[in-house]
Amino acid sequence: xxxxxxxxxxxxxxxxxxxxxxxxxxxxxxxxxxxxxxxxxxxxxxxxxxxxxxxxxxxxxxxxxxxxxxxxxxxxxxxxxxxxxxxxxxxxxxxxxxxxxxxxxxxxxxxxxxxxxxxxxxxxxxxxxxxxxxxxxxxxxxxxxxxxxxxxxxxxxxxxxxxxxxxxxxxxxxxxxxxxxxxxxxxxxxxxxxxxxxxxxxxxxxxxxxxxxxxxxxxxxxxxxxxxxxxxxxxxxxxxxxxxxxxxxxxxxxxxxxxxxxxxxxxxxxxxxxxxxxxxxxxxxxxxxxxxxxxxxxxxxxxxxxxxxxxxxxxxxxxxxxxxxxxxxxxxxxxxxxxxxxxxxxxxxxxxxxxxxxxxxxxxxxxxxxxxxxxxxxxxxxxxxxxxxxxxxxxxxxxxxxxxxxxxxxxxxxxxxxx
Amino acid sequence: xxxxxxxxxxxxxxxxxxxxxxxxxxxxxxxxxxxxxxxxxxxxxxxxxxxxxxxxxxxxxxxxxxxxxxxxxxxxxxxxxxxxxxxxxxxxxxxxxxxxxxxxxxxxxxxxxxxxxxxxxxxxxxxxxxxxxxxxxxxxxxxxxxxxxxxxxxxxxxxxxxxxxxxxxxxxxxxxxxxxxxxxxxxxxxxxxxxxxxxxxxxxxxxxxxxxxxxxxxxxxxxxxxxxxxxxxxxxxxxxxxxxxxxxxxxxxxxxxxxxxxxxxxxxxxxxxxxxxxxxxxxxxxxxxxxxxxxxxxxxxxxxxxxxxxxxxxxxxxxxxxxxxxxxxxxxxxxxxxxxxxxxxxxxxxxxxxxxxxxxxxxxxxxxxxxxxxxxxxxxxxxxxxxxxxxxxxxxxxxxxxxxxxxxxxxxxxxxxxxxxxxxxxxxxxxxxxxxxxxxxxxxxxxxxxxxxxxxxxxxxxxxxxxxxxxxxxxxxx
Lengths: 419, 478
Description:
heterodimer, A: alpha+beta, BirA Bifunctional Protein, domain 2, Rossmann fold, eight-stranded mixed β-sheet, five-stranded mixed β-sheet, 15 helices, 16 strands, B: alpha/beta, D-Maltodextrin-Binding Protein, domain 2, 4 domains, six-stranded mixed β-sheet, 16 helices, globular
């Protein structure tokens, strides 16, 4: 019977996670650092609903079929029309929708959010609910905007005390132009693109593409790693670079040049793009000691694709889950005094006095917890409420001293005087 | 056996329907016969005539991959289409395809009506339109819609007769068919062949790893090496219905859905009695589009199970179905615009909760008590998945597993389910299968259902009201 009970009592869903008090403390700390930085840079916080219509994510240029095969989709209670809803599988697309529906009159919208996204992971050993802090900069096509996001993200990571942050840059525009050069039929191109955005770069070497001129160029580009805008200038100077690549390469080089001027180190790695197919321009990813901590990029086609006007945009997300194990919350500036108010007699009078004195203590800036069960406590200060005057027995456990006090004002004075 | 260990008991799941004749022939020819495995059988549990440790049970083909994947059966025979339908949604299913049995050949096609100008796949993803896809394979349909990058689509899972819906009531259909000529005969144009399907021998992964099923598999291997394979020659019975028509997109006409199966005869009788004459809805050859003497009514014959959803989404204005299917729909979609307009009096059944005779549970509370001592959750098999779900919620059954079935649910008790939510007329069939009614949920009869919005639509209101009036009057005198 005991075993039955054990099985029956709430077992967590596969791939779900509890955040215990100490985890939540770190979580809150990350959120606070993230939120503070965003606000200081002029971004405004938004929240989108957990449920969205599936069709928001199905158009080509949003999520790949492989990602769509891992969404939590179902029929709502009024889903008799067959329209499916989905638990938010991505942070950017809902915010783009929010912008189109509510803020489209603003030329520039700087938005940020802290949200969970849901992705089915087959083994159930990794989180299926993932948290991220996201930033979207809508309305600007300037290379400086891409740079702003990289700087903001690095500032947040630095504020979280993450060391050895690595930035990898890639460019979806360069990549897409290159794939166009392969002159595949639209079906093959979409399929190849889907595989690449799902992270399967091998597919390019497996195909017969390798023999064509473009194939060779592609292989060259995929293998090369650069560390400055000069690398891109060198590429641009190569004789076999087709004209169609020029504007994307120019944009890439301009951003890289700005980062050089700002002394921001990065690595150029075309293969670092992954996961989303809505990116159109610069893509970047942040990692530390091999752990991916965030990624982002430019997505100029997404807003028109979901029904908005032609609006350039870019954004990034930092992954809170891997950060949880890397971040140590800074010691609180002010150590709160935690005080235990013990109510030993269960009379209405004693209970009333306990609540009232706890309230006074809180107003004086202390954390006051009330105990009705007579348990032992490691709090320094314990205030036992008496039925008759003197109303309070105050114990300072650090000095092993107990004193009688007749009013809560005196208690506060006594505790305050001793700090 | 060298190890001298006892022979494992092996359970095989055998198909009803389309594959039955050929499967029975194969088993006979390879010398692995079962008594009573024929079209006419009234038994679900079969015993091998040659291997004492081999038993079998007959299921709807669609249920077989599920039964094998969850480990209720070690081996099974079913079409590749149903295996893929399961693994499209649940890729980690513990299912192994052991061998291709080569018969039951056919294809899964994604098709459009030849009366629509959709002739190539590119058009599908380019348009902003919300495609209506009707199919018995909702998982495969969703996967292919996503792969085709359809911007917007709605999938209507149906129990059958998918080919009847286009072009007026659906845009695309994903269906199994022997070949393209069979598809063309339905006035459909195949856009894509999703899959070529044969019958397969499948195994549960765990059984394959731990049990010795080699003896049984050897029979099949021998069969595949035989020179003459008479089972390949067996063709499934030709369809008894036909579907020739001129499409009608006139938005002022009333679309009425009529039931096939058991409900067809009493419905035809009823319509006849109220003076609505129909051509092609009685006799041996069923027209999927019978014609009324009133030219403002368009009728299609579909499965009664599918009607509430089809009426809800506006594909049909009215339908004759059972209260049971209306309730099953409304329990899942409480804000649905479907409503009952008239009770028609025929097709009386009780929807009941059923347990095995051997289970000493007189009511749901006793069943809960018996269940409390067990480690596994209560298993409920039902065609009425939402009625069953509500019944269990209302009775505070805390841990249960719903097993959706596609007919022949009584075969599930007692081995593969503990409780059944099922309909019965007299209870005789249940008693014959050693089952007992534990609870009656409600009485169901045939009823006319309709879409509230079409009742209010200016184009249709008048016709709808007069038609409903005719039905109501007739129902009162019936």
